[in-house]
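Q: Hi! First time doing this. I have a protein sequence and I read that you can turn it into a structure. Is that right? Here it is:
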Amino acid sequence: MVSAEDLSLAQSLWDQAEQQRLNDVQAEADRTEQVARYETREEPAAKALENRARVAFLATKGATMKMWLDARDNILADLYNGGSSIDH
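A: Yes, that's right. Below is the predicted 3D structure, encoded as structure tokens:
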């Protein structure tokens, strides 16, 4: 049979180990949060493609943002379907 003193000692050791585990989990969570704060957020590929297409479109003499908005869906559909022509 286990004495009350041995049981108390075992419980104390268990509690210390559990507290250390919780501290380790918290430290890892803190490190992960710190890394996440400094990571470069990359935009999705679809958004990057749209941005490049918009810049190319607006670089054409006479192109306006209104013209881009009117033609955007057709241009992007063409790009996503493998086309490479951008007409306006």
